[in-house]
Protein backbone atom coordinates (compact mmCIF):
# COMPACT_ATOMS: atom_id res chain seq x y z
CA UNK A 1 0.00 0.00 0.00
CA UNK A 2 2.82 2.42 0.77
CA UNK A 3 4.12 2.15 -2.83
CA UNK A 4 0.68 2.98 -4.21
CA UNK A 5 0.36 5.90 -1.82
CA UNK A 6 3.76 7.33 -2.84
CA UNK A 7 2.92 6.94 -6.52
CA UNK A 8 -0.42 8.66 -5.99
CA UNK A 9 1.15 11.56 -4.08
CA UNK A 10 4.14 12.31 -6.41
CA UNK A 11 2.21 14.68 -8.65
CA UNK A 12 1.02 16.79 -5.63
CA UNK A 13 2.82 19.69 -4.00
CA UNK A 14 4.47 18.99 -0.62
CA UNK A 15 1.63 20.78 1.24
CA UNK A 16 -0.98 18.74 -0.59
CA UNK A 17 1.01 15.56 0.08
CA UNK A 18 1.08 16.35 3.81
CA UNK A 19 -2.63 17.06 3.77
CA UNK A 20 -3.36 13.76 1.96
CA UNK A 21 -1.12 11.82 4.38
CA UNK A 22 -2.90 13.44 7.32
CA UNK A 23 -6.25 12.42 5.83
CA UNK A 24 -5.03 8.82 5.41
CA UNK A 25 -3.76 8.75 9.00
CA UNK A 26 -7.11 10.04 10.28
CA UNK A 27 -9.00 7.39 8.29
CA UNK A 28 -6.72 4.66 9.65
CA UNK A 29 -7.19 5.95 13.21
CA UNK A 30 -10.97 5.94 12.75
CA UNK A 31 -10.89 2.34 11.50
CA UNK A 32 -8.70 1.32 14.45
CA UNK A 33 -11.06 3.08 16.86
CA UNK A 34 -14.06 1.28 15.38
CA UNK A 35 -12.23 -2.03 15.71
CA UNK A 36 -11.45 -1.32 19.38
CA UNK A 37 -15.05 -0.33 20.10
CA UNK A 38 -16.33 -3.50 18.43
CA UNK A 39 -13.92 -5.56 20.52
CA UNK A 40 -15.08 -3.81 23.72
CA UNK A 41 -18.73 -4.43 22.80
CA UNK A 42 -18.10 -8.12 22.21
CA UNK A 43 -16.27 -8.36 25.55
CA UNK A 44 -19.18 -6.62 27.33
CA UNK A 45 -21.68 -8.94 25.67
CA UNK A 46 -19.61 -11.93 26.74
CA UNK A 47 -19.57 -10.61 30.33
CA UNK A 48 -23.34 -10.10 30.25
CA UNK A 49 -23.90 -13.61 28.92
CA UNK A 50 -21.63 -15.00 31.62
CA UNK A 51 -23.48 -13.04 34.34
CA UNK A 52 -26.84 -14.22 32.98
CA UNK A 53 -25.59 -17.79 32.94
CA UNK A 54 -24.44 -17.41 36.55
CA UNK A 55 -27.77 -15.87 37.50
CA UNK A 56 -29.65 -18.71 35.85
CA UNK A 57 -27.32 -21.15 37.60
CA UNK A 58 -28.18 -19.55 40.94
CA UNK A 59 -31.88 -19.73 40.08
CA UNK A 60 -31.52 -23.37 39.06
CA UNK A 61 -29.77 -24.22 42.34
CA UNK A 62 -32.50 -22.38 44.27
CA UNK A 63 -35.20 -24.23 42.34
CA UNK A 64 -33.55 -27.61 42.98
CA UNK A 65 -33.32 -26.83 46.70
CA UNK A 66 -37.00 -25.82 46.78
CA UNK A 67 -37.98 -29.05 45.03
CA UNK A 68 -35.91 -31.05 47.51
CA UNK A 69 -37.59 -29.22 50.38
CA UNK A 70 -41.02 -30.04 48.95
CA UNK A 71 -40.09 -33.69 48.46
CA UNK A 72 -38.71 -34.00 52.01
CA UNK A 73 -40.83 -35.44 54.82
CA UNK A 74 -40.87 -32.16 56.77
CA UNK A 75 -42.85 -30.35 54.08
CA UNK A 76 -46.43 -29.52 55.09
CA UNK A 77 -48.72 -29.06 52.07
CA UNK A 78 -51.14 -26.16 52.27
CA UNK A 79 -54.22 -25.50 50.23
CA UNK A 80 -53.99 -22.66 47.76
CA UNK A 81 -56.18 -19.65 48.50
CA UNK A 82 -56.69 -16.91 46.01
CA UNK A 83 -57.16 -13.33 47.13
CA UNK A 84 -60.70 -13.44 45.74
CA UNK A 85 -61.62 -16.32 48.06
CA UNK A 86 -60.19 -14.44 51.02
CA UNK A 87 -62.35 -11.40 50.19
CA UNK A 88 -65.42 -13.60 49.85
CA UNK A 89 -64.76 -15.27 53.20
CA UNK A 90 -64.19 -11.92 54.93
CA UNK A 91 -67.43 -10.32 53.75
CA UNK A 92 -69.83 -12.89 55.34
CA UNK A 93 -68.08 -12.56 58.70
CA UNK A 94 -68.67 -8.81 58.57
CA UNK A 95 -72.40 -9.42 58.42
CA UNK A 96 -72.45 -10.99 61.88
CA UNK A 97 -72.80 -8.16 64.40
CA UNK A 98 -73.61 -8.61 68.08
CA UNK A 99 -75.81 -6.07 69.89
CA UNK A 100 -73.94 -3.41 71.84
CA UNK A 101 -74.18 -3.98 75.58
CA UNK A 102 -73.96 -1.23 78.18
CA UNK A 103 -73.61 -1.79 81.91
CA UNK A 104 -74.95 -5.13 83.20
CA UNK A 105 -76.01 -6.72 79.91
CA UNK A 106 -78.60 -4.19 78.76
CA UNK A 107 -78.95 -3.53 75.06
CA UNK A 108 -78.28 0.08 74.05
CA UNK A 109 -81.71 1.41 73.07
CA UNK A 110 -80.33 4.71 71.76
CA UNK A 111 -78.90 3.06 68.63
CA UNK A 112 -81.36 3.61 65.77
CA UNK A 113 -82.76 0.42 64.28
CA UNK A 114 -83.12 1.85 60.77
CA UNK A 115 -79.33 2.32 60.40
CA UNK A 116 -77.86 -0.90 58.94
CA UNK A 117 -74.32 -1.93 59.94
CA UNK A 118 -71.57 -0.69 57.61
CA UNK A 119 -71.18 -4.13 56.00
CA UNK A 120 -74.75 -3.97 54.62
CA UNK A 121 -73.99 -1.12 52.24
CA UNK A 122 -75.03 -2.27 48.77
CA UNK A 123 -72.05 -2.99 46.55
CA UNK A 124 -73.96 -3.58 43.33
CA UNK A 125 -76.92 -2.04 41.57
CA UNK A 126 -79.93 -4.33 41.77
CA UNK A 127 -82.82 -3.41 39.52
CA UNK A 128 -86.38 -4.01 40.63
CA UNK A 129 -89.16 -5.56 38.61
CA UNK A 130 -91.15 -2.35 38.33
CA UNK A 131 -90.35 0.32 35.76
CA UNK A 132 -87.90 2.33 37.88
CA UNK A 133 -84.47 2.95 36.41
CA UNK A 134 -82.34 2.30 39.48
CA UNK A 135 -82.48 0.85 42.97
CA UNK A 136 -84.07 3.24 45.51
CA UNK A 137 -81.09 2.81 47.88
CA UNK A 138 -78.98 4.74 45.40
CA UNK A 139 -80.91 7.88 46.30
CA UNK A 140 -80.02 8.63 49.94
CA UNK A 141 -79.25 11.77 51.86
CA UNK A 142 -75.72 13.11 51.57
CA UNK A 143 -75.14 13.07 55.34
CA UNK A 144 -76.36 9.48 55.58
CA UNK A 145 -74.09 8.41 52.70
CA UNK A 146 -71.10 10.12 54.32
CA UNK A 147 -71.84 8.41 57.65
CA UNK A 148 -72.09 4.99 55.98
CA UNK A 149 -68.84 5.65 54.13
CA UNK A 150 -67.15 6.72 57.36
CA UNK A 151 -68.33 3.58 59.18
CA UNK A 152 -67.13 1.40 56.32
CA UNK A 153 -63.75 3.13 56.38
CA UNK A 154 -63.43 2.51 60.11
CA UNK A 155 -64.35 -1.16 59.62
CA UNK A 156 -61.75 -1.57 56.86
CA UNK A 157 -59.06 0.09 58.97
CA UNK A 158 -59.87 -2.17 61.90
CA UNK A 159 -59.63 -5.21 59.62
CA UNK A 160 -56.29 -4.00 58.36
CA UNK A 161 -55.01 -3.51 61.90
CA UNK A 162 -56.06 -7.06 62.74
CA UNK A 163 -53.93 -8.35 59.86
CA UNK A 164 -56.61 -8.96 57.28
CA UNK A 165 -55.55 -8.16 53.72
CA UNK A 166 -57.67 -5.26 52.54
CA UNK A 167 -57.55 -4.39 48.88
From TrEMBL:
Positions of region (Disordered): 33-54, 81-128
Compositional bias annotation for Basic and acidic residues: 33-53, 82-97
GO biological process: alternative mRNA splicing, via spliceosome
InterPro entries xref list: SRRP53
GO CC terms, sorted: cytoplasm; nucleus
PANTHER family, A to Z: SERINE/ARGININE-RELATED PROTEIN 53, SERINE_ARGININE-RELATED PROTEIN 53
Name listed for the protein in its UniProt record: RSRC1 protein
Amino acid sequence: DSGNIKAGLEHLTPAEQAKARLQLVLEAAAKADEALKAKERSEEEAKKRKEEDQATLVEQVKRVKEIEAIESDSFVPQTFRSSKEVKKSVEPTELQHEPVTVGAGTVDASAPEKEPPPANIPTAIKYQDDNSLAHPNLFIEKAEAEEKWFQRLIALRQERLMGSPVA
